[in-house]
Predict the structure.
Amino acid sequence: MKNEMPDLQQSADTRNIPIDKVGVKDIHYPIVVMDRSQEKQHTVARINMYVDLPHHFKGTHMSRFVEILNQYRGEIDRNMGEILEQMKRRLEASSAHIEMEFPYFIEKEAPVSKAKGLMEYSCRLHGQLDENDQTDFVLGVSVPVTSLCPCSREISSRGAHNQRSEVRVDIRMESFIWIEDLIMWIEQCGSSPVYSLLKREDEKAVTELAYDNPMFVEDIVRAVTEKLSKIDEISWFRVECENFESIHNHSAYAMLER
Amino acid sequence: MKNEMPDLQQSADTRNIPIDKVGVKDIHYPIVVMDRSQEKQHTVARINMYVDLPHHFKGTHMSRFVEILNQYRGEIDRNMGEILEQMKRRLEASSAHIEMEFPYFIEKEAPVSKAKGLMEYSCRLHGQLDENDQTDFVLGVSVPVTSLCPCSREISSRGAHNQRSEVRVDIRMESFIWIEDLIMWIEQCGSSPVYSLLKREDEKAVTELAYDNPMFVEDIVRAVTEKLSKIDEISWFRVECENFESIHNHSAYAMLER
Amino acid sequence: MKNEMPDLQQSADTRNIPIDKVGVKDIHYPIVVMDRSQEKQHTVARINMYVDLPHHFKGTHMSRFVEILNQYRGEIDRNMGEILEQMKRRLEASSAHIEMEFPYFIEKEAPVSKAKGLMEYSCRLHGQLDENDQTDFVLGVSVPVTSLCPCSREISSRGAHNQRSEVRVDIRMESFIWIEDLIMWIEQCGSSPVYSLLKREDEKAVTELAYDNPMFVEDIVRAVTEKLSKIDEISWFRVECENFESIHNHSAYAMLER
Amino acid sequence: MKNEMPDLQQSADTRNIPIDKVGVKDIHYPIVVMDRSQEKQHTVARINMYVDLPHHFKGTHMSRFVEILNQYRGEIDRNMGEILEQMKRRLEASSAHIEMEFPYFIEKEAPVSKAKGLMEYSCRLHGQLDENDQTDFVLGVSVPVTSLCPCSREISSRGAHNQRSEVRVDIRMESFIWIEDLIMWIEQCGSSPVYSLLKREDEKAVTELAYDNPMFVEDIVRAVTEKLSKIDEISWFRVECENFESIHNHSAYAMLER
């Protein structure tokens, strides 16, 4: 029955227009990612999978993307190279792309009380396999920090405005880097890290730390740049910082790419 | 031609199940709202329109909602009562609901330099006409303010964490109240108002004002409650405050209804 | 050190304004929920926790919410009653609320090929413990289905417009109901269920099923109403359906509560 | 007073790290854009403004962005070149960027009844002025259309699944193009256009049009490519199409850049 059905996607297309990316987008999927302290971490990803489409095919076979994904039962991160190869082969394509985004949790101790809490970081992993079988992987993390305005502190006779900021970093690696390390490097670059659980003595400590360590949005991207430039395993990075200003209803923003 | 087409929506339904609300949702629409200083303000709304459906009808006529909306060329706020009546009549319903949400802009002077900037406030207007032809209107505004933590200020030897907060207030009115007044009352209830344009001398002023005026999320909803309780034109209100904590990646929240 | 710090939250408040809900909002947290076929399922929730605040307290202790949450290591669903009790006791409150929202995955077979794919359903669980120690739990699910327009089918000489719809159902239960059952009941109420993986023979089957089974948004909420009214374990429900119309850029919507 | 305040932003930075973009993000602002039929259209934009920051400055002056914006009273589109020049000059930068996104409304007639309704299209306008004073402008529109699956139609004995799709197109222009024209070209490339108001006779027409005109996501990006390739005024474009599949809970997607 199935074989008798026409396969429109395989039919010829005469418009002579190859397509850069075609595939499935916004698949929600439970995954298991590598975790330095617990070995494995269960989380939920939003996944996009694309291949290129040569000009002579009318369409790609969308269900095959989902079949390939299902084979790996959520262990995407460590199998990304293999998945990309399967995508190229089974979809008769010359390039393949996979993009995933997921929350990642790290247990973090409060600075004084040492009370433990879970912090969530939004992570991204993009993989690409091109027509020459070269792979390209980009790892991204979004790290919340506190920023305290140097100008406000300098000109005010008491206090200083501060706010939550989000630092978004994407990197290409020469060799393996733990998400935990990347996040830790970035957290040190704000006025203070952010925590999920703080007791009173911790709140005092982070308030004073931020006050002693004022940083513009520009200072944060420069501090991250200085830090990541020294990490040999990182061959390329882009850093963005967005301050959700406490005195405005808009954000301050800075970005640089190296 | 048209009249020969069957009208399935009008056909009988025998399941004996009346429906509370049926209609159109998420219509984006340019509107003109009343503005105290400029008379009229152009903005863009997201609109929902519903009626009830008696058990004996199979369906409502969705296109009539859009036709009714189009008659008023975006002057929805001052015609809401009439629109609700039309909805009941033309859709043969016993109750009608309209919900709209739109950004509203007010020119605001910085506290010291008097530099002018436009502040955006998200507003809501919900109207209902029931089976007894009683109307019910609820006006809502979301007002960003700065909040500075009293605990952090008290226990820290320098500084105090602060952040952007959003105060959401919904009211029922005995008589007309300008959006501008409602927003102004609410803005006075945070540690400091928020501005779109601040020069250095203003930044000093708002920093010090917030420091001198520390408020928990609980203090803000209580301050709004005290303020609104004294306004005779207001017969009911609900106030919510959410602090986008600068030391956490989650919010502090409080709500009360009177 | 800690004990010498002033506890501002415990200090007296003289404004005589009790607060309905105060607490923490939008905590992202990895959880483990009950799963009928696999016993346990790992997922990630967004959690809100609130208590009421008597008029004589200045503030609540926000960190205690997170401490209570951490005690249960993500096993929230089966411990919700106990968590609510702890919240009341440790925060000296007379009522407590917990709200969680999480994606839930079910393996589902395609209708003809029997190919297996994971479907995601957004779920909600709200619990409340009131001043009389009465609990109230509401379970909610969002279920995507296909809807095919009866009017379009009737009046057109070929085809019929159809689209993805979202059916949102919230229920109160007399006795335990599996999420899997609730979802299955709802999926039978659209023109066709939705799948993550369909081979060509399946695509033919769901296309024809939807065409043979046309339903307005009103029909879907009525079908769900008929179905759930027969389930003895359900004491209350609200059903909403939103059709993301393929011929409009807005939605058709219906809601009823029983 | 103001002049005595230290200007920290102007102070020297010795880390030798220039920043690609620094500025303000997510300013909501009422604007007036050019409209072919009505001359002017009032709408509301979300605006980002950035400049580069030479390595020797500690920070940029965020308030100046807002001051520049305010000078133009919302007439941003026709003054973008001048705004970019002002940004470079007043912020002592070598490059400047402005990004705005706004809903744009066009009155559109239903295909048979000629009933008029307002359609909303999300638009984007990005401008850049580089270190050599070269400008670069990109105009983007998001256009909803109906897509009807050719495979589903071919293999099914009745009906065919269809859904709302979003076509996103960004272009660089050699000479001026009206947003209205760009949208019209794109709308012709789906299985059927989408309308805000359709009477029964129109619903029949669009249902049959879509059925007679089945298109994969790949067909839509190719049809847009064929169309835009013939427009001399367009020197570059990127086209994306996302189908919010009615038989899945994820999207089909295609993209190409020329």
User: Anything to note?
Assistant: Chain B touches chain D at residues 1-2, 5, 7, 27-30, 41-44, 63, 66-67, 70, 103, 105, 113, 115-118, 120, 196-201, 204 (CB under 8 Å). Chain B is about 25% helix and 40% strand. Strands of chain B lie at 19-35, 39-53, 96-109, 116-129, 135-148, 162-173, 192-193, 234-243, 251-257. Residues 26 and 189 of chain B are 32 Å apart (CA to CA).
